Amino acid sequence: MIGSLLYLTATRLDIQFADCLCTRYQASPRTSHRQAVKRIFGYLKFTPELGFWYSSGSSLSLRGFSDADHAGCRIDLKSTSGTCQLLGTSLVSWSSRKQASVALSTTEAEYVAAASSCSRLLWMKATLSDFGLRFGRSLFLVDSTSAISVAKNPILHSRTKHIDVRFHFLRGHYEKGDIDLVHVKGVDNALIKGEIESQWTGLIALLV
């Protein structure tokens, strides 16, 4: 069942995070995990009309979003990164993935998620450049002002110097002018949050 749900995430962003959680317990599933999978199938049954709309009149600007839940996994206390990238108003790439190491703070979890999303955004820019498309400074939205401050500040402080060097390429591309880091309110950034139904429906409507 999990395999079929993972296949479906290619066109259904709204179940990406739930699928990511369920895959962690495939080795030793319990009744609660089976019930969670059944709820996903129940949700899909009552939302068959959801899909993506790609407008021919959409602009060719690239934007990226990222979010993270600090220590969201109860087993190993690792965080989950949620990212998505848009070409104009069209959602073209997204992911939900558990981070490889334990983040010591919310700032670190958000910073790692932002670096992951930035790498996808830069890959898209490089790929589209092969088709003759050129992009300027891409807008990148993060709901953590602390993570944005770390990316914009070239000085390493005691609370951030332990962060793996490979994630600091986010700061390098900001300084080069490839991306522009902007804060977005947490209530408008639900990539890894379980919202109430009315808020969830409203946010999904903006993406599909």
Automatic annotation (TrEMBL):
State the name under which the record lists this protein: Retrovirus-related Pol polyprotein from transposon TNT 1-94
